[in-house]
Amino acid sequence: MPSNPTSADAASGVPGLISVIIPALDQQDFICDALASLANQQLGGRQLEVLLIDDASTDATTVLAAGFHTQLPGLRIINHGTTRGVSTARNTGLEHATGEFITFLDPDDWLGPEQLRLLAQGLEDLDVDFVRCDHVRVTGHKREVHRAPQARRSTRLDPARDIAPIHTASMIDYPFVWAGMYRAGVLATAAPRFKDSLRTCEDREWFWRLCLNAESYAVLDAPGIFYRRGVPGSLTGILDERQLDFLPAYASILSVATDACAPTGHGAKAMRQFFAVACHHLARSEQFTPAVRTRLRAGTAKLLAESPAELVARSLDQLDAPRRKILTGLRASLSGRVA
After folding, report:
1. In whole numbers, what is the pLDDT of the chain averaged over residues?
2. Taking Cα atoms as reference points, which of 184, 146, 178, 158 lies closest to residue 266?
3. pLDDT over 90 for what percent of the chain?
4. Neighbours of 168 (CB within 10 A)
5. Of 83, 101, 226, 310, which residue is the least packed, with the fewest Cβ within 10 Å?
6. ∠ CA 19-64-52 to the nearest 5 degrees?
7. Which stretches within the chain are classed as H helix?
8. 140 to each of 24, 90, 91, 107, 108, how far by Cα in Å?
9. Pairing outcome for strands 47-54 and 14-24
10. Rounded CA separation 245/85 (Å)
11. ∠ CA 156-16-181 to the nearest 5 degrees?
C-alpha cells in the first residue's frame, strides 16, 4: 500500500488499518444499526478499528455497543465522564486512532457493506490526501442520493482550488466530515483537531482548514453512506444557543480565508457562505427565544462590522435583494447603537 510522502512516519498510522470514529450521546435507538453496518464491511484484506466515543450517555448506548465486541474485535468504547460535545468527542477519537486511514460515522447513520473498502481503495489507487463521496439521505422510508458538487470523479484534484466558484455550490459547501476518508498523516498537520468550543458548525470550520492545508483529494462514485434526516434530538434541528456557534465558526473561517496567503476568491466564498447561514437562522429567528434572537442579530452584525469592509460591501452588492436588505438592516442597527 502506498504511503503519503508528505506525512510524518510517526503520525501515518498502522498500514492497512482503518479507524472509524463514532461520537455518541444517547443513541440507543440507532447505535446497533451503525455498528452492524461496520461488522458487515467487506474490507478487502484491511483491518478495522472502531472508536466509539460515548459522550456521557444516560441511556443504553454503551451497553448495546458492548454487545458488538465479538462481531467487531477492533471495537473500543471510550467514555467521557461528562458531556463535552461532538467536537471534543471526535477529538478524543483522533487522539486514540491508530489507523493509516481515518473516517467518521455518526451514530444514527450506517454504511453499505463495501463503503470502507471503496474509500480506502480510492485513497491508495489515486494517491491522494483524502477522498470524498456522495451519500444517501434517508427521510422516513424515502431514500435519495445527494451528490457531492464536483462532476470530475476518480481524478486527483486540488482541494483549495475547488473552493471556487463563489456563487454556486462547490466542494467547500459539502462539509460533511463523514462523507469521506482521510490519511492520518495528513490530518495530523492539515486539520488535527476540531474546535472544542463549537457545538454546531464544527464541520465547516474543520473542512475549510483541511482544504486549505491539504494538497490533493478526489471524489469517488461511492454513495454508500446512509444519512438519517429529521432524527429527534439531532443537532441540526435544535433551536437554542448552540445554533449560534456558526458565529465563532465563521469568524475563524473568514480569518483563514482572508489571510494574506489565501487566494482572493476564498474570502468572497467564505463571506457568501456566512451570509447564507446567517440569513437561514435570521429567517427562522422567531422560533428562538427572545434572548437567543437578540444574540443572533447582535452577533451577526458584529461579525459584519469586524470583517474587511471592502469584502463585505462587495459581497452584499452581489447578494439577492431580500437577503441584502436583512443584512444591511443589521449593519445599520449596529451603527446606530455605536453612535
Report:
1. 92
2. 158
3. 86
4. 8
5. 310
6. 25
7. 31-39, 61-66, 86-96, 115-126, 184-190, 202-213, 246-257, 264-283, 290-306, 309-317, 321-338
8. 21, 27, 31, 17, 13
9. parallel
10. 12
11. 40
Q: Are 7 and 22 in contact (CB under 8 A)?
A: no
Residues belonging to the chain: 339
Residue written as grid cell 455498528: 35
Helix pair 309-317, 321-338: axis angle to 10 deg: 150
Residue pair 49/19 in contact (Cβ under 8 Å)? The answer is: yes
Residue range 30-52, pLDDT digits in tens: 999 999 999 999 999 999 999 99
Nearest residue to 329 (alpha-carbon basis) of 270, 259, 282: 282
Cell reading at 75:
471495537
Contacts of 305 (CB under 8 A, 6+ apart): 331, 334, 335
Q: How confident is the model at residue 102 (pLDDT cuts 50, 70, 90)?
A: very high
For residue 12, the one-letter residue type is S
In DSSP terms, which residues pair with 110 in a beta bridge?
226
**Which CA distances in Å does 132 have to 24, 92, 121, 268?**
23, 23, 12, 24
Q: By the 8 A CB rule, do 247 and 156 touch?
A: no
**Distance between start and end Cα atoms, the chain:** 63
* Angle (nearest 5°) at CA 209 between 208 and 210: 90
